[in-house]
Amino acid sequence: MHRLILSTLALLLPPPTPALAVGWVLWIQGGDSPWDSVSTFPTPEECAGALHQQAQAVEKVGLKVTETPGTAFAAADSDRTVKGQCLTENADPRATAAK
Fold first, then answer.
1. Which residues pair with 32 in a beta bridge?
2. Where are the domains of the chain?
3. How confident is residue 47, by pLDDT bands cut at 50, 70 and 90?
4. Does the model's pTM come out above 0.70?
């Protein structure tokens, strides 16, 4: 009898929901300024595309860019530095920098 009740209850429960999708955030840091979140994207590929566009824009203003495709870039000239990276929504580079 207990098995019948448990089986019936199991049928009445909603199915488990998949984990919520985690978004991806494009972070940019210029010079000594703190990291700033620029935009959020639903997939890592979309964030990587925006990151690459930022790297190209920085290169057009004369900075030498070193890019790690899909994850980060660093750019510099004699007196300026800019960094960019894509991280999951629950990761914050400002927390890492403060340690």
1. none
2. 18-89
3. very high
4. yes
